[in-house]
Model the fold of this input.
Amino acid sequence: MIKVVVVDDSAFMRKAISTMLAKDPEIDVVATARDGEEGLELIRKHDPDVVTLDIEMPRMDGLTCLRHIMMEMPRPVLMVSSLTNEGAEATLKALDLGAVDFIPKQLSKVSLDIVKIEASLISKVKIVASRKLMHSRPRSAFTRAPAAAGAATRMQARPAPTVSASGSPRRDVVVIGVSTGGPPAVQKVLSGRIADT
Done:
């Protein structure tokens, strides 16, 4: 089972998201929270595989909560907010802080269009749940500075970079990571590089 904690200040949204996710037999909403502070407590208590997180909330907003999650107990976080329209500043900030994806709320005070996100919500929760292992690695694995002696040894053992005819270091490998909508951009970049060679 994929354990999920839903964090949203709207009682309607907490119920709606929980109900939609509960329709999938592989997903279990173990807790819901009204704000970031309560969300952090419930995440510590239940150790969910995925967290859905609103942005605008009282006491502690979603971006502040997201920072705490990533510093203390990294795991996949899916932003579900009326502010998370693609390209919005809040969305970009959330992704920069470590959120793995987002779904915009499609609703107003007089609309129940939230049900339109059901299939996407379930699908994304199941996809990002598989990333928990990556997010659960101890932060020290990424931030620990090597001992001076060990670093010196590795520097000495590293072969000198080859230099191209233009005098710049030659790189044998280039890695490009993209998300939704990225493949066409990568194709354009690579097409340009191939044409230049």
In short: The beta strands are 2-7, 27-33, 50-53, 77-81, 101-104. Residues 182-196 form the longest helix (15 residues).
